[in-house]
């Protein structure tokens, strides 16, 4: 994979992180191993270590991708940025966005549809894993660039968050959140799939990924502390929620559970937000239903491209398709764990009008 080799080589050789400059509160920061070592450090759930930057926690890959984005990303008209907390429906929404925005070029029932040939993560790259030189080169055959990331809104560059002088916006942000208990449960299983794959395939720990299993209790403790990637999750969700209320033309706030319970209504809502509503002709052709079917968990998980191979060294494509059900957290968490997450969520969101 084009962007994987870059990061794999970086971590394996333990070379210093790419020298670069970014501006934070008018202070120039040189991104290097020395700078990285100056940041608060903690154990992560999917990474051996996470580092606190601008109030949130990141692994080394995420942090380098964030700095690159802050320095070099320049939005174009029709760009779309999907933001999620890890394991909140990222893969599913990537597929939906790709199918929705490319429905004129690729009919959902096309046997050679790109989503049947490549993974959603290949078609909608993570900004964390994309080199600045690839911001354009990955989309040479497309009029719309779609990126995914886990970056909190406060960390995004002004080129993304600010509007033009006329109040227009040249990049749309779609934020998808999920029930906190379900998100944690999915993250816990994902972390252990990584560790199992690294051990079984005899990979050397690379990309900063966690190389040993994590217990439910340890993962829960770290999650509540917020030292998982882009954590604390409550702060990330709340920031995007508030932004969606203040600038509804810029940020669309979506819920995983609503996407599951009313996929057709949510897909139409998403299409309208992106300025690509379904025409009467498309409605007659049942285009909404066809996109929903193409991107369903059952359909996507059965494809060979999603059930074999590896997205990253130690991260199998199949690890992104575990269950996809609502309420899974209640089957794994003790009553005490569930109550604690509910209490934290209630305390964090109090007064915001947001309920998960």
Automatic annotation (TrEMBL):
Keyword DNA damage: no
Entry's Gene Ontology molecular function annotations: sulfotransferase activity
PANTHER family: SULFOTRANSFERASE SULT
Signal peptide (residue range): none
E.C. code: 2.8.2.-
Annotated Sulfotransferase domain residues: 78-353
Top-rank EC class of the record's enzyme: transferase
Originating organism: Daucus carota subsp. sativus
Keywords: Transferase
Residue ranges the record marks as coiled coil: none
UniProt name for this protein: Sulfotransferase
Family matches, as Gene3D superfamilies: P-loop containing nucleotide triphosphate hydrolases
SUPFAM superfamilies attached to this UniProt entry: P-loop containing nucleoside triphosphate hydrolases
One Pfam family cited in the UniProt record for this chain: Sulfotransfer_1
Organism placement in taxonomy: Eukaryota, Viridiplantae, Streptophyta, Embryophyta, Tracheophyta
Family (UniProt): Belongs to the sulfotransferase 1 family.
